[in-house]
Every structure is written in structure tokens, then in C-alpha cells.
Amino acid sequence: MRIPVTTLNDGYDFPLLGLGTYKLTGDEVEPIVRTAIELGYRHIDTAALYDNEVEVGKAINAAIKAGDVTREELFVTTKLWNDDQERVAEAYQESLERLDLEFIDLYLVHWPWPQHGTHVKAFEQIAELQGMGRLQSVGVANFSRRCSTRSSRPPVFPRCSTRWSCTPGSPSPSCAPTTTSTTS
Amino acid sequence: MTEAWAPLARGSNFDDPAIQAVADKHGATAAQVSLAYLMQLGCSVVPKTSNPKRLEENLGAVGVTLDSEDVAALDGVKGERLSGDPLTFPG
Fold first, then answer.
1. What is d(CA A170, CA A74) in angstroms, rounded to the nearest whole number?
2. Which of A56, A85, A107, A167 to mutate to test the interface with B (most CBs of B within 10 A)?
3. Number of C-beta neighbours around residue B14 at 10 A
4. Which of A64, B50, B64, B79 has the largest count of CB atoms under 10 Å?
5. What pLDDT does residue A58 have?
6. Which pairing describes strands A160-165 and A43-45: parallel, antiparallel, or unpaired?
7. What angle (nearest 5°) sits at the alpha carbon of residue B52, between those of residues B81 and A53?
8. What ipTM goes with this model?
9. E strand intervals along A59-150
10. How far is B10 from chain A (nearest CA, A)?
11. SS3 A151
């Protein structure tokens, strides 16, 4: 079954269906990620917070080694946790090492945590990483429009994916069909 | 581009009559209809599961094409966001 993709505004394809891995830990991670890839999933979503990047990375690398998929066919997302908003480059490197990957497809600020006041700068530092060859796409998660405008200067999220808890009955403002604004 | 986390609301609205009706019409499950709906709105979805059968079920959402009546019915589903308020979380 072919999974549809959308093209992000930086030109990269983003599979519309992926495997979320929040609360998958320990021995259950590798088999489920391997099975997902065998079934045709190409988009795997993890985060530093999930404490499973090592296992997710092992599964991905094993699938590549087995010839099930190539790295380029996969789309791997991970996220910067709040405690790391002031050490973005280091946290990113640590995620790369835990995943044992050469690059990550999408790196997100996991939560804005606006009361701490570092979320816009954290995003800007992620955007700087994007220019250094080991990160394709950047974005933010759980940022409401109000979060984005609460900083002292207007934030510009130039090449940005957003991630939000959407479900039927509660689609996000930016994916609801009735709104004309997009988060870009 | 928006991605939906917890797109199935942890199953909390699978019994919703509107979701059930659309699911029955397509011979699909509530999960598949929910995911198909969000994808048709242009969201990416990342359902989590540790169950291989659910992996297949969720992937089956790709084969569900909703018409405008289905989408209108699903627009009317009542639900709540699962997460805390981004302005204060984690407080």
C-alpha cells in the first residue's frame, strides 16, 4: 500500500502516515519498527523524551542492512526536549548518536515552554543546524499561534512543519479545512 | 504542514456514531476512518501502536477515500485535544 506524501516547503517529501513511538520502550521497540518498515511504513517518529532513540535507530539500521529499505526512503523525525532548549547543537548531536544515523529528516522543538523564554531561539538554532548538512527539515510541535507571538519580536519560522494533537472532532486550526491561514 | 499526534485520541471516540457510520459505509474501521479524515485535511498522522495487527490496520487508512458527505459528517464529531495547554505545559 503506497503511502501518500506531501512536499514540505523546503522541497522534501513527507509521508502522510507514519509510526509514532511515544511510550514504546525497551524490547518492544525494535520488532514493531522492523515490522512497520516491512509492511511499508517509511516515516518513523521519535523524540529524545521518548527514551527509545537507541532502539528505534537499531531497528532502522537493521532494516537497511537487511535490504528492506534504504536510508533515503525513510523519513525519521526526532525532537528537542525542553531541558535542551539552551543546548541545541549538543542535543541534536546526542540524538544522532543515539539513533546511529548520519542525518535526521525532521527535527522539532518538542514543546514551546514559553514561560522559559527560550523556544524561539531554540528554533533559530535548529534552523542553523539545517544549513550544516546533517538535518533536512525543521519545525515546531505544540506551538499555538499565541505561543509563537508571545516572544519579544515576531518569530519567523521560515521552513517549518508543525505538529499538533489533532483528532476527528479536534483538528488543529491549521489543518482544519475551514481556515485559510496556514502555519507554513 | 501540520502533523497530528495522538490522531486516534487513544481510541476514545471510536464509538462515535458518525465515525461508526462512515466506517460501516467504507467497510473500514473507526481508526482507519479517523486517519483517512486527517490525511484528507492535509495532516500527517503518526499513530503509535505496539501491536502488529494495528500497524496493518492503520496502514489500511491509506486505502480509504472519503467523499464530501463523509468529511462533513466527521467535521461534526465532538472531541477534545488531549494535550496540555502549550502556553503552560509543562507548568
1. 29
2. A167
3. 16
4. B64
5. 98
6. unpaired
7. 65
8. 0.91
9. 75-80, 104-109, 135-141
10. 10
11. coil
